[in-house]
Each structure stands twice: as structure tokens, then as C-alpha cells.
Write a structure and sequence with these properties.
The complex is a heterodimer of chains A (about 110) and B (about 120). The mean pLDDT of chain A is about 95. The termini of chain A are far apart. Chain A has about 110 residues and is an all-beta fold. Helix content of chain A is about 0%, strand content about 60%. Chain B has about 120 residues and is mainly β. Helix content of chain B is about 0%, strand content about 50%. Chain B is built from no helices and 11 strands. The model of chain B has no long low-confidence stretch (mean pLDDT about 90). Classes of the chains: A mainly beta (about 110), B mainly beta (about 120). The interface between A and B is medium-sized, with 25 and 30 residues.
């Protein structure tokens, strides 16, 4: 059973607008969350992360929000650019099992010019 | 250039014919791992290694073997491939044993190996 869920397989957004990607999790032992970005024919690359002791982390155009009570996190991209078109994976670490990350199924983002 | 290199990039084989997918990293990373990516399922961990001669099962280890005889290499072995092992495979490495202990040691992924078993 998947413990990290990205319920939107795809997202289309106009250039310059905000992209919001959502991720839900079920395991209350997750304490660290990451977003990875993947272009076709390439491996995933690390984008941004957040610890469970925070509710927001920002890095340039990318901001991740964490709502622990709802077991929900989101990635905001503002403004969206054509180069942001990619698959985005949400991942979570179980604090009792440091060596494993659980990944979501991914959301494909398409930024329209 | 710091990288994780997987070979081959594409592989088509038949059921039961043993194969090996190689993975090599040039960053002196201690931690290495194999994942498979399937539609709707995301990335699932197959095996991981915390250091030379130390390996352990991930979430979907059945049908796979690994070895870590030297720090830089972590090959994935399919002794008797089956069609349900058709997938996109990624090797990854990280500097620290705990791959997510801080923001500076996220997993570094290779570019993937597309395996088809007929």
C-alpha cells in the first residue's frame, strides 16, 4: 500500500502562473519530505526538502508547505516557466528507517507558453 | 563531472536469460540504492547498500540480487528475468549513510535503464 500519494497525475499551467502540486501521506512516522524533479531520459534530481519541524521552506521560485495535522504537503512554483515542465516526485523518510525513502507516483507538469 | 553512471540505457531480453545492469559513481559515496519506476507506482526501492559488503533488501527485492565489492560499483543482477520485471530502473547514491540527514546529501540518480523482458 502506497504511503505517499500524489493524486493528480498531471497538471497544466500557463507560463507565469502558479503551479501547485499536492502530496498526501499516511505514515505518521515520516519526519522529512523531499521533492524531486525528473526530465525525460534523465534521472530524478533533488529540488527542495522540508523537515517535519517546519511548515514552510522556500528556495527561489519553489516553496514547500507542510501541514502535519492533515498529513499533506504541497509544492508551489511561482512563476512557472517552460523549463519547469517535468515529472515531480514527492518523497518521505520514515524516522525509524533512515535508509529508505517512500516515493509518490509523480505529477507531470506542463507549462504552456 | 560528478555522476552516477548506469549501463546499458536500454535492454531487451527474454525470460530466463541472466542479465546485469551496472552502476558506478565517482563521488566516493557510501550509500547506493536501486529503484524501479512503474506507472502509477512511483519509485520503489529494490536493494540498498550502506557501504562495501553491506547490502539490504528494499521494498521489492524479489527476483533481484546485488553486490557491493567496491565502493564505486553497485551492480543489479537478474538471475532469471520475468516479464513483470519490465520497468525503468534507477541507481542512486548519497554521501552519507543516512541519505537524507541534511539538505546537502540528497540522493543522486543515474539516468536510468529501460528494461524489457519478453
Amino acid at each position: 500500500d502506497q504511503q505517499v500519494k500524489q493524486n493528480s497525475p498531471s497538471l497544466s499551467v500557463q507560463e507565469g502562473r502558479i503551479s501547485i502540486l499536492n502530496c498526501d501521506y499516511t505514515n505518521s512516522m515520516f519526519d522529512y519530505f523531499l521533492w524531486y524533479k525528473k526530465y525525460p531520459a534523465e534521472g530524478p534530481t533533488f529540488l527542495i526538502s522540508i523537515s517535519s519541524i517546519k511548515d514552510k521552506n522556500e528556495d527561489g521560485r519553489f516553496t514547500v508547505f507542510l501541514n502535519k495535522s492533515a498529513k499533506h504537503l504541497s509544492l508551489h512554483i511561482v512563476p512557472s516557466q517552460p523549463g519547469d515542465s517535468a515529472v515531480y516526485f514527492c518523497a518521505a523518510r520514515d524516522w525509524g528507517n533512515d535508509y529508505k525513502l517512500s516515493f509518490g507516483a509523480g505529477t507531470t507538469v506542463t507549462v504552456r507558453a | 563531472e560528478a555522476q552516477v553512471t548506469q549501463n546499458p540505457r536500454y535492454l531487451i531480453t527474454v525470460t530466463g536469460k541472466k542479465l546485469t545492469v551496472t552502476c558506478s559513481q565517482n563521488m566516493n559515496h557510501e550509500y547506493m540504492s536501486w529503484y524501479r519506476q512503474d506507472p502509477g507506482l512511483g519509485l520503489r526501492q529494490i536493494y540498498y547498500s550502506m557501504n562495501v559488503e553491506v547490502t539490504d533488501k528494499g521494498d521489492v527485492p524479489e527476483g533481484y540480487k546485488v553486490s557491493r565489492k567496491e565502493k564505486r560499483n553497485f551492480p543489479l543482477i537478474l538471475e532469471s528475468p520475468s516479464p513483470n520485471q519490465t520497468s525503468l530502473y534507477f541507481c542512486a547514491s548519497s554521501l552519507y549513510i543516512n541519505p537524507t540527514i541534511n539538505n546537502n546529501s540528497p540522493l543522486h540518480f543515474g539516468n536510468g535503464t529501460r528494461l524489457t523482458v519478453t
